[in-house]
Amino acid sequence: MTASKDLMPVIEIMTQFADETGLTATDREPRRYLWTDAFAVCNFLELYRRTQEDRFKDLALALVNQVHHTLGRHRENDPRSGWISGLSEAEGEQHPTRGGLRIGKKMNERKPGDPFDQRSEWDRDGQYYHYLTKWMQALNQVGRETVNETYNRWALELAQAAHVGFTYGDPSGEGKRMHWKMSIDLSYPLVPSMGHHDPLDGYLTYQQLRATRKELGGDGPDLNTEIADMAAICSGKNWATDDPLGLGGLLSDACRAGQLITEAGADLNTLMVDILEDAQTGMEAYGRQNHLKLPPEYRLAFRELGLSIGLHGVNKLHDLLNRYTDRFPAEHPARSRVESLSKYQPLSEAIEQFWLTPAHRKTTTWKDHLDINRVMLATSLAPEGYLDL
Questions:
Q1: Which of 22, 151, 278, 366 has the least C-beta neighbours within 10 A?
Q2: Is 171 within 8 Å of 219 (Cβ atoms)?
Q3: Residues 303, 243: contact at Cβ < 8 Å?
């Protein structure tokens, strides 16, 4: 099948990414970063679906393997070695995600007792919960595409490990809370505060993994306890934000909730409407800031592209509401909220066209975040691989 013209920029971006990060070039050390690689797996799968070229599926599978053997193991400059889970070599091969996965930052993690420095912490390794959920989603997509429950099981085992590592009992006795960043071996928190959207991300991702487990007939953890924990943490939360990446995540989550309602029969109507309401509040605040009128050197592409991807999710959710009128009748409150959010759809094309302009990709802000910028641009141009359950 010949690739359509609109796919050519995505193919070019992802082919270059595979070469320059050491996935296909044998003369380069692998440069793996969990967030970016999760989106890249979804992109390769979408290219495979749309072209039926096996090379793209092979790249997705090769990337999964390389991530597990790089970020699932201790750093080369760490006195520890082997799988970060502590499993033997043979057991680790069978369960590569059971200890979580490193972020892939250039600097080693901060040791217990070392002073905290907010600026350097951004450059230090460890584990982020919201990166782990992205990888769970990528593995789940691979499992569904290949009809291989192993990938879903790895995602379920990662969810279980992340949940144990990042959640803890609130000292006040009021249920559980979450840490934002943990050490490489998940033994101590590096940033103890809770990420704004981490509980929501976990709650929906766990349900997505559980639905696929049922679909594929797998035998991984059922996550029932973990889902109940996340539901409690999410209760009463306000998700509004004016950060474009956070807004994009919210809109994508609303899209996921809609798909879980229609495809898995999940009871998520109220949560989906709450997400849409808070996203509307955030979009109004973001729109007042006029960030998209700034010159490229004052803009972070990957954050804007996160919003663009989420806006594609609004479009997908709009189609979903119209297709499943039995689930979403005319009076369903999600309809008016999706219509209100749809007016922001032109922002998606504006963001994509801005960052497709070669001159705008010559700035320091683009080059400093090259891998994540270009992979998320590719995702925005072909978003179904990421947005589809």
A1: 22
A2: no
A3: yes
